[in-house]
Amino acid sequence: MRSSLECLQEFIDKNGEEWQKRLSTCMKSDEELSPDERACFQDFVEAYREAVIAGKSDELGAVKKRIANDLLADELREYIDQYLTGFYAAEPLRTLEVKDFDSAKKLADLIFEEKIVRFNPAIYEKYADFGFDAEQTFASVVNVVASLAEFTVEGNLQKKAIEEAVYTNIRITRKLSSYIAEKTDRNFEQIRAGLILRRLSENN
Fold first, then answer.
1. At what angle do helices 4-15 and 57-67 cross, to 10 degrees?
2. pLDDT value of position 1
3. How far is CA 198 from the centre of its chain?
4. Which of 95, 84, 129 is nearest to 109 (CA)?
């Protein structure tokens, strides 16, 4: 995969002197972009997102230097961070699975049993059982896993695609991503039925 700096340079080459204005426009709306321009912009966004996830400070610094506009650089980082809310929220889960993989699996089980398939309002009170210091942090992890499961069911994804979506969005290990994908696939129809009922309720 090319670096975000390389992808940015390609975007600059394609857009000429107006590239800074065009980059800002792309972040606001891609409705008017040509297929080629949309692909170029998305290549840069994905490469930059990967650099943020990997903590490549040198590469991120080089991109900021090349942009040479603090306001535009800040706009870019805010734009990318919108796509990384799940990744940030799942940080305690990544930490937990490194310390104790079995506990991470048990947490996944709990999320499916008491948040996704059925709902127990008391689930959020169980944060200390998994070593969390605050209920809000625990709730964020529960909600991001639940949202991912529902998102993949809404998309009618196959199990392998579910695993890839989970891994790509929150970067837990492949092993735990596979476990969550398996549980999603096993409960697929029940989750879908719950989503349909929720939509009907919202529309009444």
1. 20
2. 76
3. 23
4. 129
pLDDT of residue 131: 95
Task: Measure the CA–CA gap between 161 and 167, rounded to whole angstroms.
Answer: 10
- Spatial contact of 171 and 90, defined as CB atoms under 8 Å apart: yes
**CA gap 161, 148 in Å, rounded:** 12
Q: At what angle do helices 159-170 and 135-154 cross, to 10 degrees?
A: 140
pLDDT value at position 88?
97
Q: Is 136 exposed, middle or buried (0-12, 13-18, 19+ CB in 10 A)?
A: exposed
55: left (phi over 0), alpha (psi -120 to 50) or beta: left
Which regions of the chain are under pLDDT 50? none
Q: Could you tell me how many residues make up the chain? A: 204
CB atoms within 10 A of CB 53: 13
**Six-digit token string for 49:** 């997102």
pLDDT at 183: 97
Could you tell me if 120 and 151 are in contact, meaning their C-beta atoms sit under 8 angstroms apart?
no
Own/partner pairs, 27-34, CB within 8 angstroms, 24+ separation: 27/75, 27/76, 27/79
Interatomic CA distance for residues 67 and 22, integer angstroms: 12
Task: State the sign of the Cα–Cα–Cα–Cα dihedral 91, 94, 96, 99.
Answer: negative
Any idea which residue has 């929150």 for tokens? Answer: 170
Q: What is the pLDDT of residues 186-197, one digit of tens each?
A: 999 999 999 998
Q: In this predicted structure, what is the pLDDT of residue 21? A: 93
